[in-house]
Amino acid sequence: MEKQADIVKATATDANLKNYEEARRTFDWTDVEKEFSWHSTGKVNMAYEAIDRQVEAGLGDKVALYYSDATRDEAVTYGQMKSNSNKFGNVLRGLGIGKGERVFIFMPRSPELYYALLGTIKVGAIVGPLFEAFMEQAVRDRLEDSQAIAIVTTPTLLPRVPVADLPNLKHVILVGDDLELGERGVDFKKEMAAASEELAIEWVDREDALILHYTSGSTGKPKGVVHVHNAMIQHYYTGKIVLDLKQDDVYWCTADPGWVTGTSYGVFAPFLNGATNVIRGGRFSPQDWYGTIQRYKVTVWYSAPTAFRMLMGAGDDTVSQFDLSSLRHVLSVGEPLNPEVVRWGLKVYNKRIHDTWWMTETGGQLICNYPSMDIRPGSMGKPIPGTDAAIVDDNGNVLPPNRMGNLAIKTPWPSMMRRIWNNPSKYEEYFRLEGWYVSGDSAYMDEDGYFWFQGRVDDVINTSGERVGPFEVESKLVEHPAVAEAGVIGKPDPLRGEIIKAFISLRAGFEPSEELKADIAKFVKVGLSAHASPREIEFRDKLPKTRSGKIMRRVLKAWELGLPTGDLSTIED
Ligand code: 6R9
Description:
The protein is α/β, with parallel strands linked by helices. The two termini are about 35 Å apart.
């Protein structure tokens, strides 16, 4: 592992974080806590701190949210965010929903989504955001596991909510017009119109649950990662030093709230910092995205490698058709940011793209590149002040520089997950090495303290920045009438990082064909979600299995990459 010679010098002179090394020596999380009123009262609520407090500080008329899509074009002030989230809080209270109960949100991005999310938090309930792309099985798994009491959704998505099978789901809050409300249906618009703008906020303990994000592992169903209100300390601070947010910033995080990036950095961090937040609905297109930056004069832009690679693929000419001169700071998260993309960003945007590393489980950014720090393209950067990261071996020994091992974070940090819903043993696995959180990523640190991502330790697939558990896809595949067995791997892909490839053995009476491949892919797309559907399928008479019957994904991967298959002592035959 050689250190890349490339260094892109820092040029920012007015960054919030002036001197990284000094901050590491002097920083103390309690100094950040003291900026919040609850530090003295002990009473806290994330949504109050993000919205109401800004109104009290005089930002009531400032735009909190610009929202646009093909049919809507709106600006919502902090004052309006406050009253609309209060109204939704009252709608929930009217249904008898309160502290600790799980309320899911399953709808495309819109201002209503943000009112619902913040209003849920205001009454102390736990919010569970879902991707609109989820199909029935994915929705069912999450609502069942968490025993959700309510879901906020739209008539279009409602058929994917298996209401009849979910006895705990008492309320289906529908956002739409001319609704046909079933037995459990609630008309969002009607109730919002009737609700009071005044709400007595539910003050909670800093360690009370805030949000539930389901994420995929290599085995089992998706797990519900629980974050608490205390996470705001980290959201606020990283918003300041990593996103480099200042009050005048127009900030655009391209992530959906179904992904942790779309909440921690699409809702909490920008509002806690009093910035103006841009939300753009609809589908990705380079023209649309550049047009969004140009129109709103976006200054800080947080996106993902897949998107940057697609923008790169669209060509430099596309860039020159737009005025992107408002951009001051550009960041990336979700997968390895290729050095090539960083070099391209320098060329076409004349901006450094700052990579950031973190996970659903960490709740907030942990290893980052800062505007005032030199960048080494390909490196994730250095740990944020107040935290320590290291490369450790499987026994928890810290390894010297340039040795590959487990990327681990010294516990605790403010936004660390506090539980896995219904699954304490899963939670403990992350903390199996005394004093460390084990990320599941492998990496090394160079002699100057920069961290370099190497891969996942487990079989989790990262396709276009989304985590997909192979087990979930395999389970769906074997529900198809033609599929006997299935093994799923991530296959390297220049655009998407990885694509999902499925190896399948067929049941007796079925013959391999292109039509069958298409049918199986569609089956997963319709049953689970589009991003979990295999882009490649290969039929095999037999799949490699251990004696205990586990499909050996590492052998499938070796087949795929033409690599040696390694130790096969546990293979069945
Ligand atoms: C926020 C988020 C987490 C996994 C993580 C790692 C990969 C994230 C990365 C990165 C290389 C980066 N990942 N950021 N890999 N460089 N800058 O992505 O959360 O969806 O839970 O994914 O994504 O493998 O372990 P999540």
